[in-house]
Amino acid sequence: MDGLTHDQLALLRAMLEERLAALAASAEQVGSGHELAVEEVETSPADKATVRLLNDLALEAAGHNAAQMGIIKRALAKFDDNSYGECEECGNPIGFSRLQARPEARLCIACQTRAERR
Fold first, then answer.
1. What is the C-alpha separation between 69 and 65, in angstroms, rounded?
2. How many CB atoms are located within 10 Å of the residue 22 CB?
3. How many CB atoms lie within 10 A of CB 76?
4. Is residue 30 a contact partner of residue 58, using CB atoms and an 8 Å limit?
5. What is the pLDDT of residues 43-54, one digit of tens each?
6. Most distant CA pair in the chain: distance in Å?
């Protein structure tokens, strides 16, 4: 955790916990993901297609939410083993400004740039 002060770490942890709580609240509103967002009823074929599309979009959003929650939980776990703020690829510190923008960042800017070019 070189380069990050105690106050910076506390701020970043609070940001991650806040995001996790917001995602959890959103997931609670949507339900378990097994329920249909819109019930299919006897309607025209065009309406049925719309209902299926809305249900597919709701399931996709629930999947995205679950994935985001997993990423944030992994970032929070790094506080426990003192590896938060270290690049997973090169081991160098991730800059505070990058972590402020993306507190769940796993890579420093240089490694992220290389990964995106691949």
1. 6
2. 13
3. 18
4. yes
5. 677 777 888 888
6. 62
